[in-house]
Design brief:
This protein is α/β, with parallel strands linked by helices. It contains six helices and eight strands; from the N terminus they run αβαββαβαβαββαβ.
Length: about 160
Amino acid sequence: MQPMFDRLVALLDAHAAAYRVLMHDAEGQSARVAELRGTEPGQGAKAMLCALKGQAEPYALVILPGDQRLDMKKVGAALGGKKAELVNAQTAMQLTGCRIGAIPPFTFDERIQLIVDPSLITGYGEIAFNAGRLDASMVLDTQDYLSIAKPRLVDIRQG
């Protein structure tokens, strides 16, 4: 399997998406990586792989603004249960090919649903995300993201 960064470049190029690549110091914290990118924390597409609590499946890659917190009850409801939980680091690596903190807001595995909080795509014309590595980010046109990724839009933020 090719590295996630290369898969993303190929995918975005195949769709003639408007994006740019930013190389920076390795960073997994949303606020700090936003500083390194020169973007707002709310533009950051924070990606977390979840499953229903106590179950292996279904999986969901949930995406929300980098300055927001995830509501596990809302994610659980979106998956048809009561509450979700984050998968462990090993499962995240197996399913996405990325370590936690480097997972981009795209799914390449049919077992993983893609759920995006609508607040991510309404606030900015571009989203920013780690591109399969902690030292590389992409800044992508929001409309291009929606048309390529085709996420399910669900309110998954706390509050």
